[in-house]
Amino acid sequence: MLVPFKSVGSNVTFFKRSSGFNLGVEISNDDLKERTVFSVELLQMSDTGLKVFELINVSPKLVLKNASATNSSIVACSEEEFFSDVIDRMVTKKKAKKNAAFKKVKLKVGKKLKKTSTTDTTIKTKKVVLLSQLQEKNGTSERPLSYRGLSLDDLCKQLGHFSKSVRNGALVGTKQLLTSRPDLVESHLRVLVPSVARLIPHCGSDPALSGQLLALIRVICNASPHSMTAHFTLFVAHLLHALTHNEARVRSFSLSVIALVLCTYPDLCSKNADLFTAFVKFLGGSHKPRWNSPGFLETIVSFIKAYTADRSNRKDVCTEIQLSMDTGEVSAGVNLLRTFSKSNPFDFPVITSSISTTVSPLEVPESLLSLSEACAPILDVVSS
Hints:
This is Ipi1_N domain-containing protein. It comes from Angiostrongylus costaricensis (Nematode worm). The chain has about 375 residues and is of the alpha+beta class. It has two domains: about 10-100, no CATH class; about 145-310 and about 350-384, Leucine-rich Repeat Variant, CATH 1.25.10.10. About 45% of the residues lie in helices and about 10% in strands. It is built from 15 helices and seven strands. The chain has helices spanning about 80-100, 130-135, 150-160, 165-180, 185, 190-195, 200-205, 205-220, 225-245, 250-265, 265-270, 275-285, 295-305, 335-340, 365-384, and strands at about 10-15, 25-30, 35-40, 45, 50-55, 65, 75. The strands form two sheets. It has a four-stranded antiparallel sheet with strand order 3-2-1-7, with helices on one face. Strands 4-5-6 form a three-stranded antiparallel sheet, with no helix packed on it. The longest helix is centred in the first third of the chain and has 23 residues, at about 80-100. The protein is elongated and about 155 Å long. The model is unreliable at about 1-75 and about 350-355 (pLDDT under 50).
C-alpha cells in the first residue's frame, strides 16, 4: 500500500515507529524535484479504529503528525536495521500462515475428529404415525378379512409386489381366506386367475413360494368348470409360458400344475388346441425331464385321457316318419325332449354349434402322428 508524504531530507531515508512495526522509506529525486515516501503498513489497528499517520515537512528531524493521537513519533534508522525489521516481519507472517494451515484442532472431551476420506452414512429418520392404520378392522360376511386384516382385493394386489416376503405373505393370506370361505373362489375368479397365474413363471424357481403357490392353485381349482371357462385360456397361457422357461425348476413346476389342470378340467383341456400343440412340442424337445421324474409319466397319461373323445354315451337315433304335404299329417310322433334329454337347450345342431362339431386332436391323423413321434422315445427308454 502506498501512502504519500511531504518530507525534506537526503535522497534515501529509512524510518520506523519506535513502538511498532510500521516502517517507511523516503526516496527523493532532486532532478525531478519529486519526493515520495513509500510506506509499509502505515496503518495500525486499535480499539478506537484506524490511526492514520502523516509525515510532515520538518528537517533534519522527522516528526510524525498523528491524525487521531498526538503521542506518536517516528525515529530514523539505518538501512540494516530497517531491512532487518522488514525480514523479521515477513518471516513472522509466513510462519503464522504456515502454522494456520497445519494447526491442530482442539476437540472437546469424548469427541473425535472425522476423517476427510470417510463417507458419512448416517441416516436421519422421522416417525410417521397414520391414525387410520391404528383403527381396528372388522370383517363382514360380504367383505371378509384375512388374519392380517386384509381383504381379498388387497391380497391380490400384494401378489404382484416386487418383494418375495410380501408375495409369500399374500399367498398364505389368500389361501387362508379362500379355505375358510370357499364361496369366494367362483365370485372372485376374475381377480384371482390373473393375479395367481402370472406368478407361475416367476415363483417356480423358489421352493418356498412354489409350495405356497401350488397349494393356492389347488384351492382355486375347486371352482366348477362352468365358472372357469371364461378364465381358462388366460390361465393356460401363463402355464405354457412357464413350460418354455430356461430354468428347469420353473418347467417342472409348470408341469405339475398342468397335471393338476388335466385331472380337474379334462373337458376344458380337450377344447384347447394350444395346450395340445405346446405339450406335444415339449415332449419332443430336449427340455423335458427324465422319464423317471416324479409324476412325469402320470402327466402324459392324464394328457392322453383328457384328449381322448369319449364316444360311449353317443346315441344314434333313427326314426322314420312320413309327412303328408297335402294334409299336413305325420305318421309317427317324435319326442325331441326324450331324444336330447341331456343336451344344452341353447345348442342347435342344425346350425353346427361348437359342441356338435368339436373334434379331439387325437382324431386328426396329423396330431395323432406328432404325439406318437414325441412319446416313442420315452416308451423306448421305459421299456428298456
